[in-house]
Amino acid sequence: ITVWEEESFQGKRCEFLMECPSIMERGFRKIRSIKVESGPWVGFEYPEYQGQQFILEKGDYPRWEAWSGNSGYRTEHLLSFRPVKCAVRMTAPTGSHLPARILGCSLGLKFKLKHCPSSFCFVHWRATSQAGVP
Fold first, then answer.
1. 2-127 under CATH 1.10.238.10, yes or no
2. How far apart are CA 94 and CA 91, in angstroms?
3. CA distance 5 to 33
4. Where are the domains of the chain?
5. Left if phi > 0, otherwise alpha if psi is -120 to 50, otherwise beta: which for 3?
6. Residue numbers of the chain with a pLDDT score lower than 70
């Protein structure tokens, strides 16, 4: 994620690969435009992941309207952000050698959601991963 202190990708700029609990600790006063290269990320109105939250998917956010949309909540800047962590409970087809639980999405597996009447939602394995793991 790349952030700028001013709208329209102007002013002080910094790139991040990991979470940032307070942009002010990096010498910024605020974040007013963002480019997300891969995501999703969550941007927060205040430091330490506090206040209104905004999901930031891959794309450009030149002004506050781009991340807050039509929510009616006007937040003209963000002060902290972090990537969305992926944790899934997974059930594999019978005979598969996949582990029953995988934490994180580092294998690049393809999943589909299936609603179960037991009020639990499970993520089912659908195909081979991009890494070639069946």
1. no
2. 9
3. 7
4. 2-127
5. beta
6. 70-71, 86-134
